[in-house]
Amino acid sequence: MRFKKNILCIGAGYVGGPTMAMIAFKCPEYKITVVDINPKRIAEWNSDNLPIYEPGLFEIVSSIRGKNLFFSTDIEKGIKESEIIFVSVNTPVKEFGLGAGMAADLQYWEKTARQILKFSQSHKIIIEKSTLPVKTAQAMERILHSNKKGVDFDILSNPEFLAEGSAMDDLINPDRVLIGSRETESGIKARDELVEIYANWVSGERIITSNIWSSELSKLVANAFLAQRISSINSISALCEKTDANIKEVANAVGMDKRIGNKFLQASVGFGGSCFKKDILNLVYICRHYGLSEVADYWEQVIRINQYQKERFILKMMETMFNTMAGKKICLLGFAFKAETSDTRESPAIFIAQKLLEEKAELRISDPRALGNAKADLAGSKGVIEYISDPVEAAKGCHAICLMTEWELYKELDFKKIYKIMEKPAFIFDGRNILNHSELFDIGFNVFSIGMPLFTHL
Ligand SMILES: NC(=O)c1ccc[n+]([C@@H]2O[C@H](COP(=O)([O-])OP(=O)(O)OC[C@H]3O[C@@H](n4cnc5c(N)ncnc54)[C@H](O)[C@@H]3O)[C@@H](O)[C@H]2O)c1
Fold first, then answer.
1. Are residues 70 and 133 in the same domain?
2. How far is Cα 196 from Cα 272, in angstroms, rounded to an integer?
3. Does residue 153 sit in helix, strand or coil?
4. 136 and 38 in a common domain
5. DSSP-derived 3-state class of residue 329
6. What are the φ/ψ torsions at residue 420 (nearest 5 degrees)?
7. 195 and 261 share a domain?
8. Which of 8, 22, 36 to mutate to test the pocket of ligand 1 (most atoms within 8 A of CB)?
9. Distance between CA atoms of residues 394 and 291, nearest Å
10. Which of 71, 132, 275 is the pocket-test mutation for ligand 1 (most atoms within 8 Å of CB)?
């Protein structure tokens, strides 16, 4: 079959895999190839054991893989054959040199630009899907136009707003698709080509366009606002604990105001995920670069509160469990940074686990999807750690349970049975406020949550 267009995506991660699966699914006339430098990842995309878990992803991938969706390590061939290239490589925080711990590490991004330049033989539209600091597209443009081959490129910014755990739903039904382009004739033509792809399933009024820098900045700002709401409610949870107010009641009353809305007002042990922290750090770095120190300080505080919330959680555990953890068995229910994903990047569970290990607690970690990643995250940590899929088995003989991820299945556990097989006094620290605390108290547990009344027999 001859395809209308050949599309390449460089980077087969949490963004590249699901987004390209959706485009291939909705546009059978396009051939989509996803390439990556990591052969293991590509082998997994070509197997029944996909490298990431997202509800509905496997069904879509297996229905179109080998038809118009392909996964490969042959980057050179992919670049040569494609007319449109999405770039969704990782953009972590820089760990060295200038801007270390804050600025984006653009080495993967720049290597990709140079590869595109090296192998391109014809005009291409390059689409920035990774989240990048403002004006990165301009840098890519400069690299690509430094060629003497006479090959022309148009650069677009098309940041991805999907949330892990609901990626497929978000992709089918996005709040908006944002496309940034240059206002030149060829920039607008390239933009229209990308609009045409999304228009296969996204209604026109949800596809919005802007200049490239607004598009890049909008993605950073959207993540900063989302994280800010979590830190805002978490900061108030600390006050609730001092004053006997209940954070759920406060969040409910506040969220019913239409101007505020009730989303992202769930207090917890803190936010995680690969994006929020790094994107805010990028924003802070850019603000400092432009001399806007008040603005930088304002956004930096969102990250400080998140760290404070995790530290508060550990301090509360210590205080409650008689100021010693040595030799105590602690069950972590959940390790993923949120429910419905296998991703553990920046998960608060990593911090909590490491702190407990430093205190010489013994860990039993359970998670329905993320145990593989949990093992990798804690590989260098000293201490006793067991990984047990069955949550009831994991809690057996433990002194305390820490609920780290809001998996639905944890609400339905047989806590009467769990109580019987735990050490006494038995503690539950509900880091997501999802359990029925009064019921657990009646069973015999001492229950601690975030910003809510304590239920303790002690
Ligand atoms: N994860 C999310 O929820 C999310 C949402 C929106 C945007 N983003 C952004 O999308 C980008 C990608 O995020 P992710 O979570 O998919 O990252 P990821 O680490 O899961 O995937 C990136 C992939 O790119 C590959 N790669 C790196 N350099 C390469 C190269 N030169 N050639 C080919 N492959 C290369 C890596 O091997 C990796 O498999 C980031 O900028 C991120 O901020 C992520």
1. yes
2. 35
3. strand
4. yes
5. strand
6. -60, -35
7. no
8. 36
9. 51
10. 275
Burial (Cβ within 10 Å: 0-12, 13-18, ≥19) of residue 147? middle
Decide whether any atom of ligand 1 lies within 6 Å of the 136 Cβ: no
Q: Which two tokens stand for residue 184?
A: 């030149």
- Are residue 262 and residue 163 in the same domain, yes or no? no
Name the closest-CA residue to atom 10, ligand 1: 130
Q: Is residue 13 lining ligand 1, measured as CB closer than 6 Å? A: yes
- The predicted-structure confidence for 46-93, as pLDDT tens digits, reads as follows 999 999 999 999 999 999 999 999 999 999 999 999 999 999 999 988
CATH (domain of 93)? 3.40.50.720
Residue owning tokens 């959680």: 313
In 14-163, where does DSSP find H-type helix? 16-26, 39-45, 57-64, 75-81, 107-119, 136-144
Closest Cα to atom 6, ligand 1: which residue? 160
331 noted as active-site residue: no
Give domain status of residue 220, yes or no: no
Q: Which of 9, 27, 275, 331 is catalytic?
A: 275
> Could you read off the pLDDT of 120-160 as tens digits, one per residue?
999 999 999 999 888 888 888 888 888 777 899 999 999 99
Instruction: Write down which residue in 137, 171, 202 finishes a domain.
Output: 202
Please tell me the pTM assigned to this model: 0.96
224 is a domain residue: no
Residues 171 and 311 in one domain: no
Report yes or no on 227 lying in a domain.
no
SS3 82: coil
Residue 49, C-beta contacts closer than 8 angstroms, at least 6 positions apart: none
Q: Which of 145, 168, 202 is the last residue of a domain?
A: 202
